[in-house]
Design brief:
With 380 residues, this protein is an alpha+beta fold. It has eleven helices and ten strands. Strand 9 and strand 10 form a beta hairpin. Helix 4 runs antiparallel to helix 5 and helix 4 packs across helix 7.
Length: 380
Protein backbone atom coordinates (compact mmCIF):
# COMPACT_ATOMS: atom_id res chain seq x y z
CA UNK A 1 0.00 0.00 0.00
CA UNK A 2 1.57 3.24 -1.21
CA UNK A 3 0.58 6.50 0.49
CA UNK A 4 2.82 8.69 -1.69
CA UNK A 5 1.14 10.95 -4.25
CA UNK A 6 2.39 10.65 -7.81
CA UNK A 7 4.25 13.52 -9.43
CA UNK A 8 1.17 14.36 -11.53
CA UNK A 9 -1.02 14.43 -8.43
CA UNK A 10 1.42 16.67 -6.62
CA UNK A 11 1.47 19.05 -9.60
CA UNK A 12 -2.33 19.27 -9.66
CA UNK A 13 -2.33 19.86 -5.91
CA UNK A 14 0.24 22.63 -6.27
CA UNK A 15 -1.64 24.24 -9.18
CA UNK A 16 -4.86 24.35 -7.15
CA UNK A 17 -3.06 25.61 -4.03
CA UNK A 18 -1.37 28.48 -5.88
CA UNK A 19 -4.61 29.43 -7.64
CA UNK A 20 -6.50 29.50 -4.34
CA UNK A 21 -3.92 31.65 -2.61
CA UNK A 22 -3.43 34.06 -5.51
CA UNK A 23 -6.87 34.31 -7.10
CA UNK A 24 -9.35 33.36 -4.37
CA UNK A 25 -7.97 34.46 -1.00
CA UNK A 26 -7.97 38.18 -1.93
CA UNK A 27 -11.61 39.17 -1.79
CA UNK A 28 -12.97 35.99 -0.19
CA UNK A 29 -14.36 37.91 2.80
CA UNK A 30 -15.99 40.50 0.55
CA UNK A 31 -17.59 37.79 -1.61
CA UNK A 32 -18.95 36.16 1.54
CA UNK A 33 -20.64 39.46 2.42
CA UNK A 34 -21.95 40.23 -1.07
CA UNK A 35 -22.74 36.67 -2.20
CA UNK A 36 -20.86 37.40 -5.41
CA UNK A 37 -19.44 34.42 -7.30
CA UNK A 38 -15.95 34.92 -8.85
CA UNK A 39 -17.00 33.95 -12.36
CA UNK A 40 -13.87 35.23 -14.08
CA UNK A 41 -11.67 33.26 -11.68
CA UNK A 42 -13.80 30.16 -12.35
CA UNK A 43 -13.23 30.55 -16.08
CA UNK A 44 -9.53 31.21 -15.53
CA UNK A 45 -9.02 27.97 -13.63
CA UNK A 46 -11.12 26.17 -16.23
CA UNK A 47 -8.60 27.01 -18.94
CA UNK A 48 -6.24 24.49 -17.34
CA UNK A 49 -8.76 21.71 -18.11
CA UNK A 50 -9.01 20.86 -14.41
CA UNK A 51 -12.81 20.56 -14.41
CA UNK A 52 -12.49 17.61 -16.77
CA UNK A 53 -9.60 16.07 -14.89
CA UNK A 54 -11.17 12.64 -14.16
CA UNK A 55 -12.82 12.18 -17.57
CA UNK A 56 -11.45 10.53 -20.72
CA UNK A 57 -9.81 12.56 -23.46
CA UNK A 58 -12.30 11.07 -25.94
CA UNK A 59 -15.05 13.26 -24.48
CA UNK A 60 -12.88 16.30 -23.86
CA UNK A 61 -11.46 15.47 -20.44
CA UNK A 62 -7.85 15.29 -19.27
CA UNK A 63 -7.85 11.55 -18.62
CA UNK A 64 -6.47 12.02 -15.11
CA UNK A 65 -7.23 10.25 -11.87
CA UNK A 66 -10.22 10.84 -9.61
CA UNK A 67 -7.84 11.32 -6.71
CA UNK A 68 -6.15 14.19 -8.56
CA UNK A 69 -9.52 15.90 -8.93
CA UNK A 70 -10.27 15.34 -5.24
CA UNK A 71 -6.93 16.86 -4.26
CA UNK A 72 -7.79 19.95 -6.30
CA UNK A 73 -11.20 20.38 -4.64
CA UNK A 74 -9.56 19.97 -1.24
CA UNK A 75 -6.93 22.65 -1.92
CA UNK A 76 -9.50 25.11 -3.26
CA UNK A 77 -11.80 24.51 -0.27
CA UNK A 78 -9.05 25.31 2.22
CA UNK A 79 -9.47 28.90 1.08
CA UNK A 80 -12.93 29.21 -0.50
CA UNK A 81 -15.47 26.44 0.07
CA UNK A 82 -18.03 28.25 -2.09
CA UNK A 83 -15.74 27.92 -5.08
CA UNK A 84 -15.00 24.35 -4.00
CA UNK A 85 -18.64 23.26 -4.20
CA UNK A 86 -19.18 25.02 -7.53
CA UNK A 87 -16.18 23.06 -8.83
CA UNK A 88 -17.46 19.80 -7.33
CA UNK A 89 -20.99 20.16 -8.72
CA UNK A 90 -19.63 21.08 -12.15
CA UNK A 91 -17.37 18.02 -12.27
CA UNK A 92 -18.91 15.38 -9.97
CA UNK A 93 -22.65 15.93 -10.36
CA UNK A 94 -23.11 17.47 -13.77
CA UNK A 95 -20.08 15.78 -15.33
CA UNK A 96 -20.77 12.54 -13.48
CA UNK A 97 -24.35 12.47 -14.78
CA UNK A 98 -23.08 12.74 -18.33
CA UNK A 99 -20.25 10.20 -17.98
CA UNK A 100 -22.26 7.63 -16.02
CA UNK A 101 -25.13 7.76 -18.49
CA UNK A 102 -25.90 5.48 -21.41
CA UNK A 103 -25.90 8.42 -23.84
CA UNK A 104 -23.95 8.01 -27.11
CA UNK A 105 -20.34 9.19 -26.96
CA UNK A 106 -21.10 12.06 -29.34
CA UNK A 107 -23.73 13.39 -26.92
CA UNK A 108 -21.38 12.96 -23.97
CA UNK A 109 -18.72 14.95 -25.79
CA UNK A 110 -21.20 17.64 -26.82
CA UNK A 111 -22.30 18.31 -23.26
CA UNK A 112 -19.07 17.55 -21.39
CA UNK A 113 -16.22 18.99 -23.46
CA UNK A 114 -17.24 22.67 -23.04
CA UNK A 115 -17.46 22.12 -19.27
CA UNK A 116 -14.00 20.67 -18.86
CA UNK A 117 -12.20 23.85 -19.90
CA UNK A 118 -14.54 26.27 -18.18
CA UNK A 119 -16.20 27.49 -21.37
CA UNK A 120 -19.57 26.41 -19.95
CA UNK A 121 -20.87 25.68 -16.44
CA UNK A 122 -22.98 22.69 -15.41
CA UNK A 123 -25.51 22.05 -12.66
CA UNK A 124 -27.51 19.14 -11.29
CA UNK A 125 -31.28 19.21 -10.90
CA UNK A 126 -32.53 16.40 -8.69
CA UNK A 127 -33.79 17.93 -5.43
CA UNK A 128 -37.35 19.26 -5.20
CA UNK A 129 -39.32 20.69 -2.30
CA UNK A 130 -41.07 17.29 -2.08
CA UNK A 131 -37.97 15.25 -2.87
CA UNK A 132 -34.92 15.77 -0.68
CA UNK A 133 -33.51 12.68 0.99
CA UNK A 134 -36.48 10.89 -0.60
CA UNK A 135 -35.34 11.41 -4.18
CA UNK A 136 -38.16 9.16 -5.33
CA UNK A 137 -40.67 11.88 -4.43
CA UNK A 138 -40.15 13.65 -7.76
CA UNK A 139 -43.00 15.65 -9.29
CA UNK A 140 -41.27 17.07 -12.36
CA UNK A 141 -42.67 15.31 -15.42
CA UNK A 142 -41.47 14.89 -19.01
CA UNK A 143 -44.11 14.09 -21.63
CA UNK A 144 -43.21 12.72 -25.08
CA UNK A 145 -44.25 14.97 -27.96
CA UNK A 146 -42.96 13.83 -31.36
CA UNK A 147 -39.18 13.97 -31.40
CA UNK A 148 -39.13 16.09 -28.22
CA UNK A 149 -40.16 15.97 -24.58
CA UNK A 150 -42.14 18.67 -22.77
CA UNK A 151 -40.94 19.11 -19.17
CA UNK A 152 -42.94 20.73 -16.38
CA UNK A 153 -41.90 21.12 -12.76
CA UNK A 154 -39.38 22.79 -10.46
CA UNK A 155 -36.07 22.02 -8.80
CA UNK A 156 -34.68 23.62 -5.66
CA UNK A 157 -31.30 24.12 -3.95
CA UNK A 158 -29.67 23.94 -7.37
CA UNK A 159 -26.00 24.85 -6.94
CA UNK A 160 -24.65 26.76 -9.98
CA UNK A 161 -28.25 27.01 -11.24
CA UNK A 162 -28.25 30.77 -11.97
CA UNK A 163 -24.86 30.49 -13.70
CA UNK A 164 -25.27 27.19 -15.51
CA UNK A 165 -25.26 26.81 -19.27
CA UNK A 166 -26.33 23.17 -18.96
CA UNK A 167 -28.46 21.57 -16.26
CA UNK A 168 -29.16 17.86 -15.90
CA UNK A 169 -32.84 17.56 -14.99
CA UNK A 170 -34.09 14.33 -13.44
CA UNK A 171 -37.82 13.80 -13.95
CA UNK A 172 -40.58 11.23 -14.35
CA UNK A 173 -41.90 10.15 -17.73
CA UNK A 174 -44.82 8.38 -16.04
CA UNK A 175 -45.69 9.45 -12.48
CA UNK A 176 -47.57 6.17 -11.95
CA UNK A 177 -44.31 4.28 -12.35
CA UNK A 178 -42.39 6.35 -9.81
CA UNK A 179 -38.64 5.80 -10.04
CA UNK A 180 -39.19 3.08 -12.63
CA UNK A 181 -40.13 5.86 -15.01
CA UNK A 182 -37.41 8.35 -14.04
CA UNK A 183 -35.30 9.75 -16.87
CA UNK A 184 -32.69 12.51 -17.19
CA UNK A 185 -32.22 15.30 -19.73
CA UNK A 186 -29.71 18.04 -20.39
CA UNK A 187 -31.57 21.34 -20.55
CA UNK A 188 -29.69 24.29 -22.01
CA UNK A 189 -29.76 27.82 -20.66
CA UNK A 190 -32.10 30.03 -22.64
CA UNK A 191 -34.51 27.26 -23.55
CA UNK A 192 -38.00 28.85 -23.51
CA UNK A 193 -39.78 28.19 -20.24
CA UNK A 194 -36.60 27.30 -18.33
CA UNK A 195 -36.07 30.04 -15.75
CA UNK A 196 -34.19 30.82 -12.56
CA UNK A 197 -36.45 31.17 -9.53
CA UNK A 198 -35.59 32.26 -6.01
CA UNK A 199 -31.85 32.71 -5.42
CA UNK A 200 -31.17 31.54 -1.87
CA UNK A 201 -29.75 33.79 0.88
CA UNK A 202 -27.63 31.28 2.76
CA UNK A 203 -25.93 30.83 6.12
CA UNK A 204 -22.71 29.61 4.51
CA UNK A 205 -21.10 29.00 1.10
CA UNK A 206 -22.53 32.44 0.46
CA UNK A 207 -20.78 33.19 -2.81
CA UNK A 208 -21.93 29.92 -4.41
CA UNK A 209 -25.12 30.60 -6.36
CA UNK A 210 -27.98 28.32 -5.33
CA UNK A 211 -31.52 28.71 -6.65
CA UNK A 212 -34.84 27.23 -7.67
CA UNK A 213 -35.12 26.29 -11.34
CA UNK A 214 -38.56 26.34 -12.98
CA UNK A 215 -39.63 24.38 -16.07
CA UNK A 216 -42.83 25.56 -17.72
CA UNK A 217 -43.59 23.59 -20.89
CA UNK A 218 -39.87 23.33 -21.66
CA UNK A 219 -39.35 21.55 -24.98
CA UNK A 220 -36.19 19.45 -25.04
CA UNK A 221 -34.96 17.39 -28.03
CA UNK A 222 -35.16 13.64 -27.44
CA UNK A 223 -31.42 13.40 -28.14
CA UNK A 224 -30.83 15.40 -24.93
CA UNK A 225 -32.17 12.46 -22.92
CA UNK A 226 -29.08 11.00 -21.26
CA UNK A 227 -30.99 8.42 -19.18
CA UNK A 228 -33.89 6.50 -20.64
CA UNK A 229 -37.11 6.04 -18.62
CA UNK A 230 -36.29 3.68 -15.77
CA UNK A 231 -32.56 4.48 -15.87
CA UNK A 232 -32.73 7.92 -14.25
CA UNK A 233 -32.90 6.92 -10.60
CA UNK A 234 -29.96 4.54 -10.90
CA UNK A 235 -27.96 7.23 -12.71
CA UNK A 236 -28.77 9.79 -10.01
CA UNK A 237 -27.70 7.47 -7.18
CA UNK A 238 -24.46 6.47 -8.90
CA UNK A 239 -23.67 10.09 -9.64
CA UNK A 240 -24.36 11.10 -6.04
CA UNK A 241 -21.88 8.48 -4.85
CA UNK A 242 -19.16 10.30 -6.79
CA UNK A 243 -20.48 13.66 -5.66
CA UNK A 244 -20.22 12.59 -2.04
CA UNK A 245 -16.51 12.06 -2.52
CA UNK A 246 -16.33 15.63 -3.84
CA UNK A 247 -18.21 16.99 -0.82
CA UNK A 248 -15.93 14.97 1.45
CA UNK A 249 -12.98 16.71 -0.21
CA UNK A 250 -14.66 20.06 0.36
CA UNK A 251 -15.14 19.18 4.04
CA UNK A 252 -11.57 18.01 4.47
CA UNK A 253 -10.28 21.17 2.81
CA UNK A 254 -12.33 23.35 5.17
CA UNK A 255 -11.01 21.39 8.16
CA UNK A 256 -7.39 21.67 7.05
CA UNK A 257 -7.74 25.36 6.26
CA UNK A 258 -9.23 26.19 9.65
CA UNK A 259 -6.70 24.01 11.46
CA UNK A 260 -3.80 25.86 9.82
CA UNK A 261 -5.21 29.26 10.77
CA UNK A 262 -5.59 28.08 14.37
CA UNK A 263 -2.10 26.57 14.43
CA UNK A 264 -0.42 29.79 13.27
CA UNK A 265 -2.51 31.91 15.61
CA UNK A 266 -1.64 29.74 18.61
CA UNK A 267 2.08 30.10 17.93
CA UNK A 268 1.81 33.89 17.87
CA UNK A 269 -0.83 34.65 20.51
CA UNK A 270 0.73 35.30 23.92
CA UNK A 271 -1.12 34.74 27.21
CA UNK A 272 0.34 34.24 30.69
CA UNK A 273 3.79 35.05 29.34
CA UNK A 274 3.97 32.41 26.62
CA UNK A 275 2.36 31.40 23.31
CA UNK A 276 -0.97 29.68 23.89
CA UNK A 277 0.30 26.62 22.00
CA UNK A 278 2.41 26.00 25.11
CA UNK A 279 -0.74 25.51 27.16
CA UNK A 280 -0.98 21.74 27.33
CA UNK A 281 -4.78 21.57 27.18
CA UNK A 282 -4.86 23.62 23.96
CA UNK A 283 -1.93 21.71 22.45
CA UNK A 284 -3.64 18.40 23.21
CA UNK A 285 -6.84 19.68 21.61
CA UNK A 286 -4.91 20.37 18.40
CA UNK A 287 -3.33 16.91 18.59
CA UNK A 288 -6.80 15.37 18.70
CA UNK A 289 -8.02 17.46 15.78
CA UNK A 290 -4.97 16.67 13.66
CA UNK A 291 -5.48 12.96 14.26
CA UNK A 292 -9.12 13.19 13.18
CA UNK A 293 -8.14 15.12 10.06
CA UNK A 294 -5.59 12.46 9.14
CA UNK A 295 -8.12 9.67 9.66
CA UNK A 296 -10.68 11.49 7.49
CA UNK A 297 -8.05 11.99 4.79
CA UNK A 298 -7.38 8.26 4.60
CA UNK A 299 -11.09 7.48 4.17
CA UNK A 300 -11.42 10.15 1.47
CA UNK A 301 -8.42 9.04 -0.56
CA UNK A 302 -9.49 5.40 -0.27
CA UNK A 303 -12.94 6.26 -1.66
CA UNK A 304 -11.41 8.19 -4.55
CA UNK A 305 -9.06 5.33 -5.40
CA UNK A 306 -11.90 2.79 -5.23
CA UNK A 307 -13.81 4.86 -7.77
CA UNK A 308 -10.94 5.35 -10.18
CA UNK A 309 -9.99 1.66 -10.03
CA UNK A 310 -13.52 0.48 -10.75
CA UNK A 311 -14.08 -1.03 -7.32
CA UNK A 312 -17.41 -0.63 -5.46
CA UNK A 313 -17.37 2.82 -3.88
CA UNK A 314 -20.87 3.49 -2.59
CA UNK A 315 -20.01 2.65 1.03
CA UNK A 316 -16.47 4.13 0.97
CA UNK A 317 -17.98 7.34 -0.43
CA UNK A 318 -20.62 7.42 2.34
CA UNK A 319 -17.97 6.83 5.02
CA UNK A 320 -15.72 9.54 3.60
CA UNK A 321 -18.55 12.04 3.23
CA UNK A 322 -19.85 11.50 6.75
CA UNK A 323 -16.43 11.53 8.39
CA UNK A 324 -14.85 14.43 6.51
CA UNK A 325 -17.85 16.69 6.95
CA UNK A 326 -18.25 15.88 10.64
CA UNK A 327 -14.56 16.62 11.11
CA UNK A 328 -15.00 19.89 9.22
CA UNK A 329 -17.74 20.97 11.61
CA UNK A 330 -15.74 19.94 14.68
CA UNK A 331 -12.46 21.53 13.58
CA UNK A 332 -14.03 24.83 12.55
CA UNK A 333 -16.06 25.08 15.78
CA UNK A 334 -12.93 24.40 17.83
CA UNK A 335 -10.92 26.86 15.72
CA UNK A 336 -13.37 29.63 16.58
CA UNK A 337 -12.98 28.73 20.26
CA UNK A 338 -9.19 28.49 20.07
CA UNK A 339 -8.97 31.98 18.59
CA UNK A 340 -11.19 33.29 21.39
CA UNK A 341 -12.87 36.63 20.67
CA UNK A 342 -10.92 36.96 17.44
CA UNK A 343 -12.37 33.68 16.22
CA UNK A 344 -15.82 35.26 16.27
CA UNK A 345 -14.65 38.10 14.01
CA UNK A 346 -14.87 37.83 10.24
CA UNK A 347 -11.31 39.03 9.60
CA UNK A 348 -9.90 35.74 10.92
CA UNK A 349 -11.87 33.55 8.46
CA UNK A 350 -12.69 30.69 10.83
CA UNK A 351 -16.24 31.88 11.57
CA UNK A 352 -16.88 31.83 7.80
CA UNK A 353 -15.40 28.36 7.60
CA UNK A 354 -17.65 27.19 10.43
CA UNK A 355 -20.71 28.47 8.55
CA UNK A 356 -19.47 26.83 5.35
CA UNK A 357 -18.83 23.52 7.11
CA UNK A 358 -22.40 23.07 8.29
CA UNK A 359 -23.94 22.56 4.85
CA UNK A 360 -21.44 19.82 4.03
CA UNK A 361 -23.20 17.63 6.62
CA UNK A 362 -26.49 18.19 4.79
CA UNK A 363 -26.22 18.30 1.00
CA UNK A 364 -25.60 15.44 -1.42
CA UNK A 365 -27.16 13.15 1.15
CA UNK A 366 -27.41 14.14 4.81
CA UNK A 367 -25.05 12.33 7.14
CA UNK A 368 -28.05 10.45 8.48
CA UNK A 369 -28.54 9.09 4.95
CA UNK A 370 -24.86 8.09 4.89
CA UNK A 371 -25.47 6.05 8.05
CA UNK A 372 -28.35 4.29 6.28
CA UNK A 373 -26.05 3.46 3.37
CA UNK A 374 -23.28 2.17 5.64
CA UNK A 375 -25.55 0.20 7.99
CA UNK A 376 -27.38 -1.31 5.06
CA UNK A 377 -24.10 -2.85 3.92
CA UNK A 378 -23.29 -4.11 7.42
CA UNK A 379 -26.55 -6.00 7.92
CA UNK A 380 -27.36 -7.27 4.45
Amino acid sequence: MNFTLTQDQQQIQQLAREFAEKDLLPGVLERDESSEFPLEAFKKLGKTGIYGLPYPTEVGGLGGSYLSYILAVEEISKVDASFGIAFSVDTSLYGGSIMNSSAPEAIKKKFLAPITYGEKIGSFGLTEHTAGSDAAGQRTVATKDGDSYIINGSKCFNTNGPLADYTVIYCLTDPALGTKGMAAFVVEKGTPGFTVGKVENKMGIRSAHVSDMHLDNVRVPAENMIAQPGEGFKLAMKTLDGGRIGVAAQGLGIAKGAFEIARKYMMERQQFGKPICKQQYLAFKMAELQTKIQAAELLLYKAAICKEEGQPYTVPAAMAKMTCTNVAMEVTTEAVQLLGGNGYMKDYHVERMMRDAKITQIYEGTNEIQKLVISGQIFR
